[in-house]
Amino acid sequence: GENVEQHPSTLSVQEGDSAVIKCTYSDSASNYFPWYKQELGKGPQLIIDIRSNVGEKKDQRIAVTLNKTAKHFSLHITETQPEDSAVYFCAASNGNNRLAFGKGNQVVVIP
Amino acid sequence: DGGITQSPKYLFRKEGQNVTLSCEQNLNHDAMYWYRQDPGQGLRLIYYSQIVNDFQKGDIAEGYSVSREKKESFPLTVTSAQKNPTAFYLCASSTQLPVAKNIQYFGAGTRLSVL
After folding, report:
1. Distance in angstroms (rounded) separating the CA atoms of residues B2 and B75
2. Which has more confidence, B97 or A104?
3. Distance from B94 to chain A by nearest Cα, in Å?
4. How far apart are CA B79 and CA B83, in angstroms?
5. DSSP code of A60?
6. What is the C-alpha separation between A30 and A42, in angstroms, rounded?
7. What Cα–Cα distance (Å) separates residue B3 from each residue in A82, B19, B29, B58?
8. pLDDT tens profile B14-48
9. Neighbours of B42 (CB within 10 A)
10. pLDDT tops 60 at residue B1
11. Can you tell me the mean pLDDT for B51-55?
12. What span, in angstroms and rounded, lies between the C-alpha atoms of B47 and B59?
């Protein structure tokens, strides 16, 4: 089955700097790649997603890029703010109604 | 207020006891999912259901059971056979419409602990 890996496991950034989280996947048939943000004690919230027919998608300070050849996709957060501190999960799906999740990245924004 | 409601927020299980976690959605979604989350781990799929009266095992189904008698409800029972049930349990749902397929929305979770 699909295997998704995230790097780094923990990321600390100064407020106002950019944060980048990278995920790799194993199944070349995967065509849907969402990113979720999880705050302490809460359920994950979808923040952005991308399908395999595009290479980049942007929503305000958040962007996702996809490299299908290398089988990796990345989350970019610009102008980080303290409220961006959370655990971020990437996932991948080949359209079979199942998502394979990475183990998550703890992002800490230092004021 | 549309969304996914999980209850209770906290649950305690005694040795040898079965407990049931509730998940209700009013999004009219066809598919529903149960995940288990352990500290520092990703989300692992327990069971999922794509349609009423049908469900499939996920990657860690042993010690768990589900039912899908109604479209809006997908309860999870943690049986006494699950020897390490302490975890954060998350329910999710998604539509089967092609334009939004695979987009999963999550509830707030139930934290289960063993007494």
Report:
1. 18
2. A104
3. 8
4. 9
5. T
6. 27
7. 27, 23, 10, 23
8. 888 999 999 999 999 999 999 999 987 889 999 99
9. 19
10. no
11. 95
12. 8
| N-to-C CA span, chain A | 40
Structure token pair of residue B93: 């749902």
List the single residue in A42, A95, A97 with the smallest CB-CB distance to B108. A42
The alpha-carbon gap from A63 to the nearest alpha carbon of chain B, in Å, equals: 17
Distance CA A72, CA A20 (A): 13
Cβ-based neighbours of A81, under 8 Å, separated by 6 or more: A15, A109
Which structure tokens are listed for A86?
A: 């959370």
Comparing CB atoms, the residue among B6, B104, B109 nearest residue A99 is: B104
Average pLDDT, chain B: 92
Quote the CA–CA distance of A110 and B53 in Å, as a whole number.
49
List the structure tokens of B21: 């976690």
pLDDT tens-digit map of A44-88: 999 999 998 889 999 999 999 999 999 999 999 999 999 999 999
Residues 37-76 of A with CB under 8 A from B: 41-46, 49
Rounded to an integer, what distance in angstroms lies between the CA atom of residue B53 and that of residue B69? 6
